[in-house]
Amino acid sequence: MTEIIDGNAVAADVRDGLADAIETLTDAGHKPGLATVLMSEDPASETYVSMKQRDCAEVGIESHHVEIDPDAPAEELYDTVDDLNADDAVNGILVQMPVPDHVDTRRVLRSVDPRKDVDGFHPENVGRMVAGHPRFKPCTPHGIQKLLEAYDVETEGAEAVVVGRSNIVGKPMTNLLIQKAPLGNATTTVCHSRTKDLAAHTRAADIVIAAAGAPELVTGDMLGDGATVVDVGVNRVDADTEKGYELVGDVEYESAEEVAGAITPVPGGVGPMTRAMLLWNTVKAASEQSG
Ligand code: GUN
C-alpha cells in the first residue's frame, strides 16, 4: 500500500506546536510580526502572499503587507526593505520572488536584515546553513525534512536524488540532506536539466525530491519499488476546467503512486509545509529579537 503523505495534517501539527510560543511572546508585548512584500501582478504570487497572510492571522502573528507597483522604480523596493528592517514590530521580512527584471534580486536578498530573513535567502544565512549551523532553514526544504520525519522516512544512509538545482529548493535541500545531523546523512545526487540519464538516477533512489519546475517530469517507470517521492512542483497547465488550467506537480502522480512506498500529493503535500515553516521561522525570529 502506498502511503499518501498528508502535508495539511503535518502542517497543522507544526502550527499547533507554535501556539504556546506565540502566546508567551504576545503576553510579554512581543507579538510576532511578519512583513510580506509583493512587487508583482502574477496571480500565483498574489495567491501565495494572501495565503501567507491568512496563515499569520490564524496563529496570531501580525502581518504587515506592502504592495509595490511592478512598474515602480527599483528604489521603492529597496527603501521598503530598509524601512521594514528598522521597524521593531516586524520580526520577519519576506519579499515574494520573482521580482521584476529591473530590480536587482541579489541586492534585495542582501538588503534584508539577516536576523529578519525568514526565507533564509541572505548570503550570510545561506553560508551558515552550508556550514552546518543554520539560523533560518529555507522553508520548503525545512518543510520536507519535517514531512520525512513525520512519516518515519529514514534519511541516514539513504540514496536521495534531488531533481532541480534552484536556490530556493534544490540547493538548500541538497545541503540539508548531506549534513551530519538528524534528518541528514543521505547519499545525495543532484540532477538537473543537463543530466544525461535522469531515470537511471531516480530508479536507484530511496528518496526522490522533484523540484525542477517541469510538469510531470518524473513518471512511475523512473522510480524504484517502494521509493519515497516528494513532489515540490506546482505547475499550471492548460486544461478544460473552469479556470482554464489545472495544477500538476513535477511527478506524474497516477503512475508514480503505483510504484512508490510513500508520495506527496499536489496540492496538499509540500505546499502547506512551506507555509508552516515560514510561521516557524517568524516565531524563531521574534523570540530571538525579544531577548
Ligand atoms: N517564490 C517562490 N517560492 C518562494 C519562497 O519560498 N519565498 C519567497 N520569498 N518567494 C518565493
From TrEMBL:
GO terms for biological process: L-histidine biosynthetic process; methionine biosynthetic process; purine nucleotide biosynthetic process; tetrahydrofolate interconversion. Its EC number is 1.5.1.5, 3.5.4.9. It catalyses: (6R)-5,10-methylene-5,6,7,8-tetrahydrofolate + NADP(+) = (6R)-5,10-methenyltetrahydrofolate + NADPH; (6R)-5,10-methenyltetrahydrofolate + H2O = (6R)-10-formyltetrahydrofolate + H(+). Coiled coil: none annotated. GO terms for molecular function: methenyltetrahydrofolate cyclohydrolase activity; methylenetetrahydrofolate dehydrogenase (NADP+) activity. Residues 5-119 form the Tetrahydrofolate dehydrogenase/cyclohydrolase catalytic domain. Keywords: Amino-acid biosynthesis, Histidine biosynthesis, Hydrolase, Methionine biosynthesis, Multifunctional enzyme, NADP, One-carbon metabolism, Oxidoreductase, Purine biosynthesis. Residues 138-289 form the Tetrahydrofolate dehydrogenase/cyclohydrolase NAD(P)-binding domain. The keyword Aminoacyl-tRNA synthetase does not apply. Pathway: One-carbon metabolism; tetrahydrofolate interconversion. InterPro entries: Aminoacid_DH-like_N_sf, NAD(P)-bd_dom_sf, THF_DH/CycHdrlase, THF_DH/CycHdrlase_cat_dom, THF_DH/CycHdrlase_NAD-bd_dom. NADP(+) binds at residues 164-166, 234. PANTHER family: C-1-TETRAHYDROFOLATE SYNTHASE, CYTOPLASMIC, C-1-TETRAHYDROFOLATE SYNTHASE, CYTOPLASMIC-RELATED. Catalyzes the oxidation of 5,10-methylenetetrahydrofolate to 5,10-methenyltetrahydrofolate and then the hydrolysis of 5,10-methenyltetrahydrofolate to 10-formyltetrahydrofolate. Homodimer. This is Bifunctional protein FolD. It comes from Halomarina rubra.
